[in-house]
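Long-time lurker. I teach an intro course on protein structure, and each term I like to show students one example going from raw sequence to a predicted 3D structure in token notation. This year I'd like something fresh instead of my usual example. Would anyone be willing to generate the tokens for the chain below so I can use it in lecture? Attribution to the forum is fine with me.
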Amino acid sequence: MAHAVNAGARLDRLPVSAFHYRIFGLVGAGMFFDGYDLYVAGGVLASAIQTKFSTVPQNLQFISLTFVGMTLGALITGFVGDRFGRRFTYQINLLIFGLASLAAAFAQDMTQLIACRFVQGLGLGAEIVVGYSTLTEFVPPKTRGRWLSMMAFLVVAGFPATALLGYLIIPAFGWRPMFVIAAVGSLIVWYLRKNLPESPRWLESQGRTAEAEALMQEIEKEAAAGGTLPPMVVPTAVPQVAADGARRARRRGGVGLPDHLPTG
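-- Reply from a regular --
Happy to contribute to a lecture. Here you go:
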């Protein structure tokens, strides 16, 4: 019988180390380009109107389908992550986003650009879900709020980056290089993310305990850095009889005492 890995409790006890900063850096880089491409629409659409590449109704379609794609991407990625793993999900969504951005840079008309933007939206919406959830699975709970706030900062940092690059690039070279930047950046991050591990929590939940244990030992060795790790705290299970009795008592309007009390 496979032993319990207790991946969650073992991850939560780890001190902050280079492992956590590497996870944050690679996940955060993808989130930055997610924010960059989300805000890129303003400069791109203004330039497309000015050069007669698009019309106002087409611009509205561009914006609408961006958010339709994001909604679908955010919805689908949770099911995909549960089925195929966290690592697969945060890799495939960035690949989709990067390739769609590259295709957008070479769109021959506004219809093609709108179609590419919809596919980009799928990756954008998925990245938001995957980025926060992946970080949450690895960082310790005591500092999790700070890690997530810094992640949110990286997303909104895409706005000033987009504004500055748009100011420097679009008047001289047009709007296409803005998508090339998003494509190249996201594909570089996609390649670097290949070294990120699968979630030990997910491996354990799938019954792949040997893989989860081996991965946890590697993570703990890196986090300990030759020192001693804090003790693991495993949550105490609630007795099933008492819990069932309390639920039945609440349904009857009682005070929540279990049906079966110890005697003798």
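Some talking points for your students: The chain has two domains: 7-216, 238-264. The radius of gyration is 24 Å.
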